Amino acid sequence: MAISESEPLLQDDTVDGAVDYKGNPVTRSTTGGWRSASFIIGMFYKHIRSQILAFHFSFSNDCHNFFFGEPGVEIAERFAYYGISSNMITYLTGPLHESTAAAAINVNTWLGVASMLPLLGAFVADSYLGRYRTIFFSSLLYVLGLGLLTLSATLPSLRPPDCENNTSVCPSPTQFQVGFFFLSLYLVALAQGGHKPNVQAFGADQFDPSDPEENKSKSSFFNWWYFGMCGGTVISLWLLNYIQDNLSWGLGFGVPSISMMVALVVFLLGTKTYRYCLKKGKNPFVSILEVFVAAARNRQGPSSTTDKESLLPTDYEATEVPVHGSSTQFKFLDRAAAPKNLDSPKNSWSVCSMSQVEDAKMVLQLVPVWVTCLIYGVVFAQSTTFFTKQGSTMERGMGFGFQIPPATLQTFISLSVVAVIPIYDWIFVPATRAFTGLPSGVTLLQRIGIGLFLSVISMVVAAIVEAQRLVVARDAGLIDKPTETVPMSVWWLLPQYILFGLSDVFAMVGLQEFFYDQVPDGMRSVGLALYLSIFGVGSFISGFLISVIEMVTTKDNGESWFSNNLNRAHLDYFYWLVAGLSAIELGLFLYFSKSHIYKNQRRNVLSM
């Protein structure tokens, strides 16, 4: 019979744990993969334009066929976010007439809040709305926030009058004008919090980890994801900053608003091709909390039982794997599956399945990796602050009277990433795969470790270059002439920017994939939010270090390491300090990495 003969083939093509937009089972041949991820990243296959209205796609799984077309939600979001954050201090000290100190405080506060809000967005997605709906509503909120920012910069009633000609007399904005602006700005931060962790997780969901080819493509997805993100950043830093500084702030905020609207339409066009992951069991946050509560309640009992599975509530399903064994990590949590009294009433707050316990262990073992990457977040913070300040004092001429804007130097990080990611994906991975046999070439923690090492080298090079800049400034007699240009080319900064970009290819992309892949299946958005929080906390740590050093070095009328006169400052000392802290962090990271149990290894233990 024809139907029965084809049935095994259909079953093999079905993707477990996923449905289409109507809730029906999905197949690999008609959904997911690069065909769906292209709508999300914003990289389109060659023949999509001729077929987009038919909603019928016939693509190969060859990611080399990408080209940049309409903006996907990720490229558009990064385009908008960096178009605001990279130049916000200029707007606050310019059209809004804030002092430099007040503007810096407001920018740092906004960036810190924006870096932590993805934890809220991930919680909402994983517990309630799901990723697709959260992305949709966050994109609408993004358009709203950017639209209100455009109005605040365009309408005369929503911004203060310009300063008087050739004077420093500037009328203060009204409370309503300030309130309207910051309401718009924090709407963008809230939208970013719901957008950032879920778009990437939803894109990775389009690849089935149980299929060898799609699992290999998923690793490439994280590379090309960061490639697209850096592409959006480069365009933003060059195009939007120029528009804002030379044409109009209203236009500079309006362009990303329009870009987000177009990207939302593109995202919706892919609705029929997406795979939507099914929720399994109870709320993942409650499930993890139950383990810790049960382990605390059973702390006086045995650390294991011979028949743990018979104790678990019948309506609980933590993972899709059989539940038998237990990993050797965090054995105290095994008490959650071993109640003190076997005759006591069984409930999920007093006895848990071993699958539940292993999920809790999975989350707990992320903590050492997260902590030992925080100084990497400190290094990341320097690229947008002191690296730029260094460049502002150096020769930046490129001929014909054109000078490189200091903030634009950040694009060299993104450009190096854009240049290296194809080499990494097409040369490095196949070459290392031949030796290791791993689909990704190296393990996730090995990739992150290489990136951390490169970040140390980047800070060492930055310290050496800054020390040389100070020598040149002293030899030229510019120690007390901070407004004069130091006769040293800005291209001396290029190595530290390139090294930092290389470290991003390994560490940042590796961290993205690690915190997506190594969390329980129901908490993947939260995993990516934890990854993002590394940079938020890293920024706070950087600010704390600067405050402490400022207080210590200026005691007894001493010269600050961060003096407004950079020719008397000592950024080189600060870079050496960060390099030393990064080296210590790398050592701790290597120590904890040796004991890390990957999710697939943990599941093998459970199946024994």
Notable characteristics:
transmembrane helix, Growth Hormone, Chain: A, single chain, 3 domains, two-stranded antiparallel sheet, 608 residues, dipeptide transmembrane transporter activity, 4% strand, 7 strands, disordered N terminus
What is this structure's SSE topology?
Blueprint lengths: L1 H12 E6 L5 E3 L5 H9 L1 E3 L2 H4 L14 E3 L4 H13 L2 H6 L6 H30 L1 H24 L20 H30 L7 H35 L2 H21 L6 E2 L6 H14 L56 H11 L1 H6 L2 H9 L3 H7 L1 E2 L15 H26 L7 H32 L10 E4 L4 H24 L6 H30 L17 H23 L5 H9 L1
Parallel strand pairs: 6-7
Antiparallel strand pairs: 1-2, 1-5, 3-4
Query: In total, how many beta strands?
Result: 7
* Order of SSEs: HEEHEHEHHHHHHHEHHHHHEHHEHHHH
Could you name the CATH topology of the largest domain?
Answer: Growth Hormone, Chain: A
Residue windows where pLDDT falls under 50 for at least 5 positions: 1-11, 43-70, 305-325
- Structurally, how many domains make up the residues? 3
Query: Rg, please?
Result: 26 Å
The number of helices is: 21
Reading off the top of the CATH hierarchy, the class of the largest domain is best stated as Mainly Alpha
**Average of pLDDT:** 78
Spatial strand order of the main sheet = 2-1-5
Largest sheet: 3 strands, antiparallel
CATH superfamily of the largest domain: MFS general substrate transporter like domains
Which structural class do the helices and strands define?
mainly alpha
Q: What percentage of residues falls in helices of 4 or more residues?
A: 55-70%
Shape type: globular
Q: Note the quaternary state here.
A: single chain
CATH architecture of the largest domain: Up-down Bundle
